[in-house]
Design a protein that fits this description.
alpha+beta, 53% helix
Length: 148
């Protein structure tokens, strides 16, 4: 990955982890993270014609999964992956740098947090939402499970 793209991905993950925790009062678990990123990219494609962070997604059973993060869950200076009794989650270290994002992308990320950072929002509910909303996942999954 090129450094700018890496920084943008890293700051998007940190943004969602920090804002999700603040609004939902619980950590950002792995499934929610993957769905936030997928909604960010696919909503951006639908509304502007291009993805916001350009991740590569695999059409897994629970919805689109960003392969760059799924395959290599490494800690960064902005966040780290932790585990508790409920699963794997993202913990932030510091503030995300929003200079990597356009005003549209920031507004979209805020909008996604407003929708999905709810205490009642389970992994199943957010996954079902991605199945309904992200047509590219549905088409890829129907053609071949776990395809890119």
């Amino acid at each position: 990955m090129i450094p700018y793209r890496e920084e943008k991905i890293k700051n998007a993950v940190a943004f969602f982890a920090k804002r999700h925790y603040k609004k939902a009062k619980r950590p950002l678990y792995q499934t929610h993270l993957y769905k936030y990123l997928a909604f960010l990219d696919f909503t951006s494609i639908r509304e502007t014609g291009k993805p916001a962070i350009e991740l590569t997604y695999c059409a897994m059973e629970r919805g689109p999964v960003p392969m760059e993060i799924y395959k290599d869950k490494k800690d960064t200076d902005k966040y780290s992956f932790k585990k508790n009794d409920y699963g794997e989650y993202v913990a932030t270290q510091g503030e995300p740098d929003l200079d990597y994002f356009s005003p549209y992308e920031i507004e979209l990320m805020e909008r996604l947090v407003e929708i999905f950072a709810q205490r009642w929002m389970t992994a199943g509910v957010i996954s079902d939402s991605s199945h309904e909303d992200i047509k590219a996942w549905r088409k890829a999954y129907q053609n071949r499970t776990n395809s890119l």
